[in-house]
Design a protein that fits this description.
Helix content is about 100%, strand content about 0%. It is mainly alpha-helical. The longest helix is centred in the middle third of the chain and has 132 residues, at about 1-134. The protein is rod-shaped. It starts with a helix and ends with a helix.
């Protein structure tokens, strides 16, 4: 009888140890499942990070292209502005020269007109004298 109760006690202990082992196994399984989920989540985060880095690199290339094009356009506009200013300066100088030439010609024409007027008046006086003498 003592053997039976001892066997029952050992069986109870074995059952208790098996239950504890099962609890530990369940805990390890839960921890393992959590680790698997954590690994999946880290993989997704890593993948998303890689995509964002690719997008970031593409944006950097686009910004560099835009900056280069803008710099080129600004240089082109500055060059065109310089050419326009030079053309305006040349046109202004030409207009000043033409204005001076025109003023000189007007002065010469006035002088010439005054000479013609004096000549016509002299002829008229001669004609008046001849008519009066006749």
């Amino acid at each position: 009888m003592l053997l039976v109760t001892e066997a029952q006690a050992q069986t109870a202990e074995a059952i208790k140890a098996a239950g504890q082992a099962a609890d530990s196994l369940m805990q390890y399984q839960a921890v393992g499942a959590f680790c698997v989920l954590l690994a999946i989540a880290l993989g997704v985060v890593f993948w998303r990070n890689m995509k964002l880095q690719d997008q970031n690199a593409e944006l950097k290339v686009q910004i560099a292209t835009i900056a280069a094009n803008s710099t080129s356009a600004i240089a082109s506009y500055a060059s065109a502005l310089d050419r326009m200013q030079a053309a305006q300066a040349t046109a202004a100088e030409t207009m000043r020269e033409q204005g001076a030439e025109t003023a000189k010609e007007i002065s010469e024409l006035r002088h010439s007109t005054n000479n013609h007027k004096a000549a016509v008046n002299a002829v008229m006086e001669l004609l008046a004298k001849r008519q009066g003498a006749a």
